[in-house]
Amino acid sequence: MLIVKTPIVLTIAGSDSGGGAGIQADIKAISATGSYACSVITALTAQNTQGVTGIYPISSEFVEQQLDAVFSDLNVVAVKVGMLSDSNIIDSVAKKIKQYTPQYLVVDPVMVATSGDLLLQSSALESLKFELLPLADVITPNLPEAAALINVKIPESEVEMTAMIDELRQLGAKSVLLKGGHLEKDENSTDLLILSDSIERLSTSRIKTRNTHGTGCTLSSAIASYLAQGHELLAAVALGKQYITQAIIHADELSIGKGHGPVNHFFVLNS
After folding, report:
1. How far apart are CA 224 and CA 82, in angstroms?
2. Confidence at residue 183, expressed as pLDDT on a 0 to 100 scale
3. CA 38/CA 226 separation, integer angstroms
4. Which end of the chain is more exposed for a tag (fewer CB within 10 A), N or C?
5. How many CB atoms lie within 10 A of CB 88?
6. Which stretches of the chain drop beneath a pLDDT of 50?
7. HEC string of 145-209?
8. CA-CA distances (angstroms) from residue 103 to 43, 64, 127, 244?
């Protein structure tokens, strides 16, 4: 019997007790897109669809212990990094990425939850910019995150998005997927894949739903999954965009919580 080796994707992120974002969303997205998910937890959150009521950081020493356990045994092809709550954990993750050199690194610079709650200490922003982002194959900021990274006001149009391109390139990542989902007045949801010498525009019709909890985690994890399967970057991003679009389209088939519900990671099982 032919044995197909499933590509392994590691997610390094915080836990969402409500199950819609963070590690839980990552594992669902990686699994739904055909890869094997393993995880390193950087923080515990008391969280649901209505907001974050508490954050309990994991020590950087234990984060490193988890990373050593995973990398010493599993053939991790791609790594997705999400919530890193403080500079010590960022430094530890960067150190271990340099030590184990996975083939692909996707960084979702998680700073604020869908509910508006702050998830990254402001003092850790510089560590994120200078220690981790330059190691990434692609970073996936939304507009508020991108604005915080380069210290400008949040764009209100696609024209203002394009004005950020040069400064985002200077962060040092190989590419940047600038997500335009926050331009809620636009008919379409347009993302810009910023490469070293070109720009790729990916646009889909905007979907009217309040169930968007975990969209950023889900998209970045799907991209990491597709990269691990051997797709080139543009194809992996396009496939990830298709996946998250369908997960949002089918989000209202779920009825989870009283606030911003999650996307439907396993829409294929119900279609």
Report:
1. 12
2. 79
3. 15
4. N
5. 16
6. 1-2
7. HHHHHHCCCCCCCHHHHHCCHHHHHCCCCCCEEEECCCCCCCCEEEEEEECCCCEEEEEEECCCC
8. 25, 19, 22, 23
Cα separation of 240 and 253, whole Å?
A: 21
φ, ψ (nearest 5 deg) of residue 270: -110, 5
Q: Which of 193, 8, 171 is nearest to 103 (CA)?
A: 8
Point out the residues that are catalytic.
179, 212, 214-217
Q: Which pLDDT score is estimated for 169?
A: 97
pTM for the structure as a whole: 0.94
Query: Residue 3: what pLDDT?
Result: 53
**For the chain, what are the domain ranges?**
8-269
The superfamily CATH assigns to domain 8-269 is Ribokinase (3.40.1190.20)
**pLDDT for res 270:** 75
What pLDDT, on a 0 to 100 scale, did the predictor assign at position 113? 58
Q: Which residue has the tokens 């969209």?
A: 215
Type of residue numbered 16 = D
pLDDT tens column, 114-128: 555 556 767 788 899
